[in-house]
Design a protein that fits this description.
210 residues, single chain, alpha/beta, Rossmann fold, 8 strands, two-stranded antiparallel sheet, 23% strand, 41% helix
Length: 210
């Protein structure tokens, strides 16, 4: 290890960009916000070496945390959760997005014991809403959630949303770090870098004033 932050000691941001996981244009996010940048980590399943690289970077952060199992959020977070579970040799569970009306009617898939601590894993975070929605059924069955791990923090209030509810966010990369690496590697022009950075700052100011 070099001792540098993960985003500086690896080429992960450029690999994500080259695989089409980071796109520029005009996009509407799940949150309803309009964005000049879109992060599509669902594409990771089509790039096994890159998915492995992501899992290793996230494992480096996860090793510092105390947990019994990984809980991955479907759908984008589930392949990452599986790769991370294999990398760490840790068991995985996941909350269903829709509870089955047949069979076991489980809200949580996978084996677990009430009282265990789970590390919630997803691809990225914009705001905290979807993470809080995933935490609710986990806590309802007696599991403890303290930490949330994502690959990318879009820096639009998600960490603060979670902190207000007592949860800690850990991100391998911030969107600012991704932009900096892409500019330094000539993947994007300085004007494009500055445009997206200005958007992030404006979006954060709107969030703070809300």
């Amino acid at each position: 290890m070099t001792g540098l932050p993960i985003y500086q000691s690896t080429n992960l941001p450029t690999h994500l960009f080259d695989a089409g996981c980071i796109q520029f244009g005009t996009f509407t996010l799940k949150s309803g916000l309009t964005s000049p940048i879109y992060v599509d980590l669902r594409l990771l399943v089509s790039h096994p070496p890159l998915l492995r690289e992501v899992a290793r970077a996230m494992a480096e952060m996860a090793c510092r945390l105390a947990f019994d199992r990984i809980a991955a959020i479907p759908y984008a977070g589930l392949p990452i959760g599986v790769a991370l579970a294999l990398e760490l040799d840790r068991p995985l569970i996941y909350p269903r997005r829709e509870v089955k009306e047949h069979g076991t009617r489980r809200a949580i898939e996978g084996a677990f014991e009430p009282g265990e601590t789970v590390l919630l894993v997803d691809d990225l975070i914009t705001r905290g809403d979807s993470k809080l929605e995933a935490i609710s059924p986990l806590e309802a069955v007696g599991l403890t959630v303290r930490d949330v791990l994502v690959l990318i923090d879009r820096e639009q209030g998600g960490a603060e949303d979670l902190a207000r509810r007592g949860y800690r966010l850990h991100a391998v990369l911030t969107l600012t770090q991704v932009l900096d690496v892409l500019r330094e590697s000539d993947r994007i022009a300085s004007a494009q870098h500055d445009e997206v950075l200005a958007y992030l700052r404006a979006a954060w100011n709107v969030k703070r004033e809300a």
